[in-house]
């Protein structure tokens, strides 16, 4: 029997897609779930898939791989799309797509499928990864080819095919929520109109500033070769380190972003993001680089950051261009070693201290008490040279 590997969450939408694939392609569907730190109910996933006649159900723990090989390289680049978005959903799709193709090859499946809608970015991110790793494997995107057009159509299809419908799915369309160990995003419903304030109940991992503690939390993050390795002198693996920072940031109201963004397809959309641990690491890494890297290296990274961020947003994680930029980002990462002390307080990440054995920062050169290092004549020549540049095109 032909086989299809479906990116399966166990929820209503992917259950409908699973049944639709079975009926329309007369194929065995392999349910594949990548555990990248989202809220996951293994029992529910297995039960729902079995009810639909699935024989092969794969739930793969990718949390540590996701943080170490995808999130950390992106944080080293200080990637931020349109000045706000830390790319939490964008960075997850390439990994899932890569592993889906690996499963498809293992079980000799002729196709892979996903549940992304026809208007969003995720369909592109998934399918670029599929194309990169499985050029001969067919891609099935149900939302672009089936005749189901509305929530009502989906509910009717579920009833006709005896797919259980949770009570919260029977009424109006739900918020579109994506979460993983790095972030939670919420879109749809009241958020679609940018005039509307985001209601407090949609936030899942951060408290409001009003409810955040009145006492700050002090955190020391240790870095080695550009990556965080410890919190308060305790070494942690990438997954545990990010989880701990998520808790610290979340309880202090860090990491909320309300953004109207430009999708790759050209549609403007409004999303609310929560990235508490990611925001802490973003500020901490920049602080660590400020005392360990030279000006030219830092400024070169700043120039390529918007390009790098857009490549990740658009699904080009595996592209030669992104890999080339990553080499620039990581050129002197071995120098980025030391500790940063932060104060986390009511949505703010405040730098208190930077500690390193690196010699990039010179106390002698910067001190107001020491003037022997700088020769005045050289400074005058420097200014004279640049004065002449003002009239050049």
Overview of the structural elements:
- Strand 8 and strand 9 form a beta hairpin.
- The N and C termini lie far apart (69 Å).
- A five-stranded parallel sheet has the order 3-2-1-4-5, with helices on both faces. Strands 10-9-8-13-14 form a five-stranded antiparallel sheet.
- The protein is built from 13 helices and 14 strands.
- The protein has two domains: 3-63 and 88-175, 3-Layer(aba) Sandwich (Rossmann fold), CATH 3.40.50.620; 178-355, Argininosuccinate synthetase, chain A, domain 2, CATH 3.90.1260.10.
- The chain has helices at 12-25, 42-51, 63-76, 92-106, 122-133, 142-145, 151-160, 238-251, 276-290, 295-313, 320-329, 363-366, 376-389, and strands at residues 3-7, 28-35, 57-61, 111-113, 138-140, 176-179, 184-187, 217-224, 227-231, 234-235, 256-262, 268-274, 338-345, 348-355.
- It has 393 residues and is of the alpha/beta class.
- The longest helix has 19 residues, at 295-313.
- The chain is elongated.
- Helix 3 (63-76) crosses helix 8 (238-251).
Topology:
Blueprint: E1 3-7, H1 12-25, E2 28-35, H2 42-51, E3 57-61, H3 63-76, H4 92-106, E4 111-113, H5 122-133, E5 138-140, H6 142-145, H7 151-160, E6 176-179, E7 184-187, E8 217-224, E9 227-231, E10 234-235, H8 238-251, E11 256-262, E12 268-274, H9 276-290, H10 295-313, H11 320-329, E13 338-345, E14 348-355, H12 363-366, H13 376-389
């Amino acid at each position: 029997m032909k086989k299809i590997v479906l990116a399966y969450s166990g929820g209503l939408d992917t259950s409908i897609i699973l049944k639709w694939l079975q009926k329309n392609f007369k194929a065995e569907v392999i349910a594949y779930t990548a555990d990248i730190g989202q809220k996951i109910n293994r029992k529910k996933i297995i039960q729902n898939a079995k009810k639909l006649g699935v024989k092969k159900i794969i739930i793969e723990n990718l949390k540590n791989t996701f943080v170490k090989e995808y999130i950390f390289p992106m944080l080293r680049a200080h990637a931020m799309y349109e000045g706000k978005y830390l790319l939490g959903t964008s960075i997850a799709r390439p990994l899932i797509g890569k592993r889906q193709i690996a499963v498809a090859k293992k079980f000799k499946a002729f196709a892979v499928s996903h549940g992304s809608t026809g208007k969003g970015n995720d369909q592109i991110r998934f399918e670029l990864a599929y194309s990169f790793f499985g050029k001969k494997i067919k891609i099935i995107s149900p939302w672009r080819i089936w005749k189901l057009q509305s929530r009502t159509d989906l509910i009717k299809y579920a009833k006709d095919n005896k797919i259980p419908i949770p009570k919260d799915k029977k009424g109006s369309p739900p918020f579109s929520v994506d979460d993983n160990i790095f972030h939670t995003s919420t879109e749809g419903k009241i958020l679609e109109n940018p005039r509307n304030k985001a209601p407090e109940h949609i936030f899942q991992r951060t408290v409001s500033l009003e409810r955040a503690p009145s006492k700050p939390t002090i955190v020391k993050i240790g870095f080695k070769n550009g990556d965080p390795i410890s919190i308060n002198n305790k070494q942690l693996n990438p997954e545990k380190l990010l989880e701990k920072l998520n808790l610290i940031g979340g309880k202090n109201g860090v990491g909320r972003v309300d953004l109207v963004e430009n999708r790759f397809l050209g549609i403007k959309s409004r999303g609310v993001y929560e990235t508490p641990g990611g925001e802490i690491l973003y500020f901490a890494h920049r602080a660590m680089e400020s005392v360990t890297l030279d000006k030219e290296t830092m400024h070169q990274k700043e120039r390529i950051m918007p390009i790098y961020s857009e490549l990740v947003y658009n699904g080009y994680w595996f592209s030669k261009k992104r890999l080339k930029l990553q080499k620039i980002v990581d050129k002197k990462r071995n120098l980025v070693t030391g500790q940063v002390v932060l104060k986390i307080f009511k949505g703010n990440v405040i730098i208190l201290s930077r500690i390193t054995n690196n010699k990039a920062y010179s106390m002698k050169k910067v001190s107001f008490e020491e003037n022997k290092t700088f020769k005045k004549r050289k400074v005058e020549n420097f200014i004279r040279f640049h004065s002449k540049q003002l009239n050049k095109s």
